[in-house]
Amino acid sequence: MRVVVCRDADEGAEIATREILAELERKPDLVLGLATGSTPIGIYQRLVAAHRARGVSFARVRTFNLDEYYGLPPGHPQSYRSFMEAHLFGGIDVPPENIHFPPTSEKSIVAACARHEAAIRAAGGIDVQILGIGTNGHIGFNEPTSSLASRTRLKTLAEKTVRDNARFYPEGEKQPTLAATLGIGTILDSRRILLQAFGTAKAEAVRRSVEGPVSSMWPGSALQLHADVTFLLDEGSASELSLRDYFRRVRENEEELRRRGAL
Ligand code: GLP
Q1: Pairing mode, if any, of strands 192-197 and 128-131?
Q2: 11 within 8 A of 42, measured Cβ to Cβ
Q3: Quick check: pTM over 0.90?
Q4: What residues does ligand 1 touch, defined as CB less than 6 Å away?
Q5: If you take atom 5 of ligand 1, which residue's CA is the nearest one?
Q6: pLDDT band for position 23 (cuts 50, 70, 90)
Q7: Greatest alpha-carbon span in the chain
Q8: Is pLDDT of 106 > 80?
């Protein structure tokens, strides 16, 4: 696991964006796994800026979003599709037919989820998966006790998740309590994972994920099983890590090796 304690969220977004753009340069038809929530917005702003200012093209990129609420009408402002339109898709040249979301409206959700998994495989698998993390350690909407081998399916949201997201719904509006999400097994199949977490509210989830035992009670801990995962943190989210100083030294060494051209 690579754990980078950044100066702040901006530096975290800067590092993640640089690494995504380097992957895109190597592979113009990159398969990107995308996340929602406030955390990845800094990455999306920078990708849009790279497209507008430097003409970086996403015309051959394929995208698979991590999750989507079940039961929201299409175009609902709180749907993750609307979020992605507003923060990324509306500002880059990715063709609409290359954009994929987990299914939420088909009659047979089980068959539709299986088709979604098949679509990821047909695209050659996810090259880079962007992740955030919930305060209860969820990744995507894989709530505590999600199987570490799970695939795309419908999940009931945890109380804590519903409470954390209540701020986005006007008083009296029904908030979704179900969502379709890529499974933990699906996420672990990605070639590379970039997880960002900022602020003290995420400190426990980060500690349990990075330093805790692998357990379905803290789904982020499953990432310990992945060979190429980077945690981009700030001082707040790193504040409970007992190995904080070690991770700082790792970063200094990495920078030195990079200066020498060894990395
Ligand atoms: C939602 C999403 C997650 C996201 C989490 C954290 O529950 N399903 O993918 O990581 O929120 O959101 P935020 O980044 O706003 O803290």
Answers
A1: parallel
A2: no
A3: yes
A4: 35-39, 66-67, 132-134, 140-141, 161
A5: 134
A6: very high
A7: 59
A8: no
Of 81, 129, 138, the one to substitute when testing ligand 1's pocket (max ligand atoms within 8 A of C-beta) is 138
Dist. CA 120 → ligand 1 center (Å): 22
CA of 37 to the centre of ligand 1 (A): 4
Q: How far is the CA of 36 from the centre of ligand 1 (A)?
A: 6
> Could you tell me the domains of the chain?
7-193 (3.40.50.1360)
Reported as a pLDDT band with limits 50, 70 and 90, residue 71 is confident
Which of the residues 116, 136, 142, 234 is marked catalytic?
136
The verdict on whether 67 is a catalytic residue reads: yes
- Give the tokens for residue 56: 């970086």
CA-based R_g, the chain, Å? 18
Please report, as a single letter, which amino acid is at residue 225.
L
What strand order describes the sheet that includes 178-181?
67-69, 178-181, 153-156
Beta bridge partners of 62: 31
As given in the structure block, the two tokens for residue 132 are: 């955030």
Strand-pair partners of 3: 231
Q: What mean pLDDT is reported for the chain?
A: 96
